[in-house]
Every structure is written in C-alpha cells, then in structure tokens.
Automatic annotation (TrEMBL):
Name of the featured protein: SDR family NAD(P)-dependent oxidoreductase
Record keywords, A-Z: Oxidoreductase
Family annotation (PANTHER family): DEHYDROGENASE/REDUCTASE SDR FAMILY MEMBER 7B (PTHR44196), DEHYDROGENASE_REDUCTASE SDR FAMILY MEMBER 7B (PTHR44196:SF1)
KW Transmembrane helix (keyword) present: no
Similarity section: Belongs to the short-chain dehydrogenases/reductases (SDR) family.
Tagged with keyword Cytoplasm: no
Pfam families: adh_short
InterPro entries: NAD(P)-bd_dom_sf, SDR_fam
C-alpha cells in the first residue's frame, strides 16, 4: 500500500520521502518513484523508535521544508493469528508498528 501511494504521489508531481525498516526495500521503492520523474529521498527508519522518527522528520524537513502529506502504512503480522493465542506483547508490537509512535509523535 505504501509503495503504491508513493508511486501515485510521484506521478502527481509530489516529491516523495520513502521510509521503512529495510534499506533495500526503501531503495527499490525510491527507484519506482524516480521512474515517475519525481524526486525521492530514501529514509530508512523503524517507526517504533520515536527518536528515529524525529530524526527522519528532521531529515525530510531539512531537505524539503515542511511535511505536507503523510501516508502511514507500516505493518506487522503476528505469527499466531488467533486472538486467543496472541500475547499482549505481540499485540502491542502490532499496534506500535501500525500507529503507535506515529500517533504519539508530534510532527513540527
């Protein structure tokens, strides 16, 4: 979902900062953005790390100014699919990856 949104934004003329935990996947998505003729900034980051999110924001805003849009599509799957088999730690990790730190972190 995030990669498709990045490519669509690029096709609409936006500069796109591509982020994610895996630098290889970030680079591949950024290449897709560039193929649309748009400028891409590669920003590897773990969204569960509030300090890393602040650094990512600072890097993006330092390069391009204020952040004008945000697509949050980070996700994590638990190895056990049934609610009754999941621990609260596993569930908390899913929530923190999906929205936790982004919701807590205030974008300046």
């Amino acid at each position: 979902m995030g990669r498709a949104a990045a490519v669509a934004a690029a096709a609409s003329g936006w500069k796109v900062a591509v982020s994610g935990r895996r630098p290889d996947a970030v680079a591949a998505a950024a290449d897709d953005v560039r193929q649309q003729g748009a400028e891409a900034l590669e920003v590897p980051v773990d969204v569960r790390d509030a300090g890393a999110l602040r650094e990512a924001h600072d890097r993006i805003s330092g390069a391009w100014g204020p952040v004008n849009g945000l697509v949050v599509s980070a996700g994590l799957n638990a190895p056990r699919r049934s609610w009754s088999d999941q621990s609260m730690d596993e569930f908390a990790d899913i929530v923190d990856t999906g929205v936790g730190e982004q919701a807590r972190e205030k974008w300046r």
